[in-house]
Every structure is written in C-alpha cells, then in structure tokens.
C-alpha cells in the first residue's frame, strides 16, 4: 500500500490549498444556495435549508410534525400530543402561522383569527410580586386573566373572553391632494373584548393586539451577534439625526441572565427557543421546561383543577418536553428564505434618500462570511403616540417597537393567499398604509415619503416588495 509523503513541496502546497478551501468563509453564492429558495408557491417559507445530515433531517421532520399536527386535551390515548389547554387559543402552531407566513386579522369566515391575540398588562405597584414579574417577563400581567386572553378552553373550563375590533377612520392627505383612509383601532375593554367569563378586569389594564409574524429567517437572525446589534445603538442621538435606536435587554430563562432581545414585536425574546416556548405556553397552554406551570391564574379554579396529562406514563413532567421543544425550534431555524431580485433601482435610491435605511438597516455580515439582508437593525425605536399600545416589555416603552424586518414582505401574499395586514396589530392593509402610520423617530422619513410624487411613492413601494 502506497504511503503519501508530505516531503514533496507540490503535494504539501496542494494539501494546504485544500485545507484553506474548506476553511474559507461561506461565499455569497454558496450561502444563497444553502439558505434561499426561488420557490413561488404557498410553501415558499417552508423549504428546508440545504446541507443537513441524516440526523439533522430527522430532527427537522420531527420538529415540523410537532409544529403542524394538532395537540389534544388530556388525558388522551396518546402521550405525544396531549396536554392542550386547559385554556388556549389554538391547538397547533400552524394555525397562527399558516404556511409559516404572516397571520391574519380575520379568517375566511370573517371572524377574528386565532393568529390575532390579545395581550394584557397593568402598571406595577412596587410589590415584590410585581418586581419579580418585571424582571422575568418584562411586564406585570392582569391578575385575573393573566398576560394573554384565551378564547378557547377544554370541557369543564370556561374560556376567558372573545375579542372585538372597532376602528376609527383617519384621513391622510398627500401634498398632491391624494387621500388615504387609515383605520385606527379603538382602545378600551368594551372596544376590544366581550363575554368576560371571570369577572371584571383591573381598572388600569392595558389591552393590545398582536398579529403572529411570518417565520422568516429565524435561524439567520440568531447568527447576528449581540455586538453587531449594539454597534448601531444611539440611545442619546449623539449624531443628531433624530434616530435613537436601543437594544432591548431581556431575561433569558434558559441562561438565567439578561441578554439582547431580537425576536417579537418589541424584541422581548432573546432566542428562538424561548419565543417558541412562550408561544406554546400562551397560545396552546402547553407546559414546558421554560414555562413549567399551568397557564391559569389563581382565580381560575376550574382551570387549575382540570385533568392533566398522564405525565408519569409519558415519562416527563411537561406537556412539551425539552427534546420536542428543541425539535420545533430546530425546524424553525432551518427554513430557507425566499431569494430576492431587485429590479427597482430608482425605488432603492429613494428608500435611501428619504431615510428608511436608518432603521431598516440593509444587511449584517455573519461569522460564516455570508451576508443577510433583513432590512432591520433589530433595535427599538419610538414610533410615535399613534402606534403606542400602552404596554412596556423590559426596556421597550409603550411607543417603542423593534424595527420590523422587511425581507420577503412582498411574498407574504403568496403564502397566505390574500394581501397581508401589517404592523403589530394588522391595522395597515398595505405597505403604503404601514409607512403612513410611522411617527416618532420615523416621522421625518414618513414626511419625505409623503412629499414624493405619486410615481416616486409607487417606486419605493415596488422596491420594498422585491426585498
């Protein structure tokens, strides 16, 4: 058997070249092939990234199954998917994220969708209980109904309430005379909720609605480092441009420390794992290692006494054990993003000129060498009183929101089968309406957009659709 010797200089050089080739950062073309898809059907947000080995593909499939197949109430013949509720909104993740895309305000029957949830909070009173809630959750939940309204319940338990939506029309007029009618949601218990099953709420309750976001690029955003996010903070607006983004500092349950938040509308989740665990707990009533208790308040006795899953038979103390929670998270972090193709160059220039790029930062270069283009700085910005929801989450005030990533925005309609509703509560029925709702730090950019000609405005919108 021949033995290769490295005494040969040519052979040594070849080996070094091979090693260096494999050590090189991921090229953009390689990254596009791995992370992006040119699919155009409803499943364009559901494609698996390339290069997973057999074990990873198995984990992806397991996570996908737990994401899509419905959970059932306990006790059940199955120990894999029982434990739903007792209070819940939906029985599967996919109901809130159809085809992994953006949720909707209304379903096909014209009813308020399960992907449109109602969150509750109250002002802290300085007690130790409230201080603990602020530290761990970033807000103080309403004492009787908790942090989120459950519209469904298992037999023997009353659901909490049913949502309402009422709007007031607001007329916006461009300098050229064109009018746009915006719909502003009305705030107040009687405007947002009906059929309260557990009595009156706290008199100072804040009620806000949240639309389930599209699950685009979660695995790529997690590769953005905290240092990259913090580098673009300008809390005191030292450069005087009117933009003062800040990072949210949130509690990581898994690590028992504070980290930079990057997920949810207010950047209140530090990881895809924690966000998935919170959704399982709040939306489906599934206990898990990060949220181990039943999703019931002390005033909801029937909920607390409802039948539980046979955890001894299942071999786990949780409805959703860590292995399955991690599989769901693995699935979400290994989905491709639709590939963009920019043809609207004039719209791109205008997007830069009017100042959208100051918050919707185009790109991050990952450690692998691959450059992603989420068009977000992942920071919090004051968006003005019109978008205030009365709710703070950790460092995010009622007026502050994470810059929404714009990548694949123009493709939401393909996954949903209907035009998307935008902003945190779906009030904007188009990209144009979403821009017109911008205030606070974004007010100058909004005004510059309004002062463009109609043709120029359409070019900006066309560009955003291509991202």
What's the layout of helices and strands?
Layout (H helix, E strand, L loop, with lengths): L8 H15 L4 H8 E2 L16 H15 L3 E2 L8 E3 L2 E2 L4 H4 L19 E6 L6 H9 L15 E2 L8 E2 L3 E7 L5 E7 L3 H4 E2 L11 E6 L6 H4 L4 H5 L18 E4 L4 E4 L11 H13 L16 H4 L6 H4 L7 H12 L3 E2 L6 H9 L10 E2 L5 E2 L7 E3 L17 E3 L9 H5 L14 H6 L6 H8 L3 H13 L1
Parallel strand pairs: 1-14, 2-3
Antiparallel strand pairs: 4-6, 5-11, 7-10, 8-9, 12-13, 15-16, 17-18
Question: Could you say which overall geometry the principal axes of the C-alpha atoms support?
Answer: globular
Overall pLDDT score: 92
Strand-pairing-aware structural class: alpha+beta
**Separation, N- and C-terminal Cα atoms:** 56 Å
Largest sheet: 2 strands, parallel
How many separate helices? 17
The number of domains: 1
Radius of gyration (CA) equals 24 Å
Strand order of the largest sheet: 1-14
Query: Got a strand count?
Result: 18
What's the helical proportion of residues? 25-40%
Structural account:
Helices cover 30% and strands 13% of the residues. The protein has a two-stranded parallel sheet with strand order 1-14. With 467 residues, it is an alpha+beta fold.
